[in-house]
Amino acid sequence: MKAIVYTEYGPPEVLQLKEVEKPAPKDNEVLIKIYAATVNRTDCGFLRAKPFIVRFFSGLTKPGKTILGNEFAGKIEAVGKDVKSFRHGDQVFGFSGDNFGAHAEYMIMPEDGLLTNMPSNMSYVEAAPGTEGSHYALNLIRKANVKSGQKVLIYGATGAIGSSAVQLVKFFGADVTAVCNTRNVELVKSLGADKVIDYTKEDFTKIGETFNVVIDAVGKSSFGACKKLLKSGGIYCSTDLGFLSQNPFLAIWTSIFGSLPGQTGKKVIFPIPKATKADVLFFKELIGMEKFKPVIDRCYPLEQIAEAYRYVEKGQKIGNVVITVEPATNPVITD
Ligand SMILES: NC(=O)c1ccc[n+]([C@@H]2O[C@H](COP(=O)([O-])OP(=O)(O)OC[C@H]3O[C@@H](n4cnc5c(N)ncnc54)[C@H](OP(=O)(O)O)[C@@H]3O)[C@@H](O)[C@H]2O)c1
User: Fold this and answer.
1) Is the dihedral of CA 27, 32, 33, 34 positive or negative?
2) What are phi and psi of 111, to 5 degrees?
3) What is the average per-residue pLDDT within 245-274?
4) Residues flanking ligand 1, CB < 6 Å
5) How far is CA 161 from the centre of its chain?
6) Residues facing 94 on adjacent strands
7) Using only C-alpha atoms, what is the Rg of the chain?
8) Which of 26, 243, 306, 323 falls 20 to 30 Å from 317 in CA-CA distance?
9) Is 224 helix (H, G, I), strand (E, B) or coil?
10) 317: closest CA among 35, 10, 39, 124?
């Protein structure tokens, strides 16, 4: 089968389109013919092994898993003899996490892994980006205990995580103020934001309002800059460590002492993201109810995946970048 393989860490130039052996499912596994996958920030981090900590998961000197891609949509091609919940021909989507493997024509998933049948209202291209950014967003929202009636500010509302966060926070019934660039104001409103702040025109930290939760979905702010946006007892959370890697330390302080010193109960949380099968089923349900739709910036065929990485690495994609695997030139596949 065709696969995008990397055997050394580095820039997108280290990626090679290769013929590799098609995997065979074990008794409790399914073989999936991939139609669409994504290139996301996690793929980029594992490609270059940046930050360095990635090497502790992926291999100190070279990558242990040589095919990236952790979100996929495709069709079940074969099932192991013990598999009960999937059949040949089922259309599925899901998340393979640190096992990756989706940048290929076929991949293996355990039956009880993070996959489920695709919602009937979606193409493979639309379903592929349904789990990665969204599970990071859901993780923050749940750990911040976002509730109906609260006010939540989302900084970086146009990334994979931010665009999911806007939709999910709305689903949970909170009021959303979203921060983005001029050209994306209408998009972010269409995702459900109640108020949009254009960061090219206004400093969002100086709007004179306070929130129960501030989510930095692009990792470019800090608790220090955002604390005046928090109500007493309010929570700040970020997708990144912070410019001095301070966020985990502030979160540990919060968990020991309940809040940060002299900050009227204001907290920082930095939850370790963990995706579950229940999350994937939840996203499927929301998609089916038309309460959540992954935002797609653009599609690239598998053969042009290095271009996709270069684009994603710029940090300016709108939502998600999709890779189409078969047929490579057709961005919307609905068979
Ligand atoms: N915790 C983890 O394990 C994990 C996993 C994946 C990603 N991440 C981190 O989470 C962050 C978000 O990931 P993602 O995939 O959602 O990002 P992304 O899709 O690459 O986000 C890029 C978006 O952010 C917007 N943006 C860039 N600079 C901005 C700024 N100063 N203010 C507001 N918006 C800005 C960009 O639009 P404009 O430039 O047009 O504004 C673009 O739409 C990244 O920093 C990534 O490293 C963490």
Assistant:
1) negative
2) -55, -40
3) 93
4) 40-42, 133, 136, 155-156, 158-162, 179-181, 199, 217-220, 239-240, 273, 315-318
5) 5
6) 72, 115
7) 20
8) 243
9) helix
10) 39
